[in-house]
Amino acid sequence: MDKKYTPHPIDTTDIELSEDLQLLTEQLARNVHDIWAIGRMNNGWTYGPKRDDTHKHHPCLIDYDELPESEKEYDRNTAMETLKSILKLGWEIKK
Question: Which domains does the chain carry?
């Protein structure tokens, strides 16, 4: 398999999120984590103090509030880049 993959994400470097959307980012980050966790659990994964692919244990199968900051940042980045991409593509986000 010699396929070369070159990612081309939407350039959102010029997009700044309002304070309201920054708050929404945190809510979406929690949801991103919950969706990930449900997917893992549905595939037989359970909590374990360290990742073990053989026994399907993962240390991040915990509540979002208990995650290490590095894991929260990963989820926040996913949420933030999604919001920025929506805006970059010309859509509006209104409450």
Answer: 19-88 (1.10.490.160)
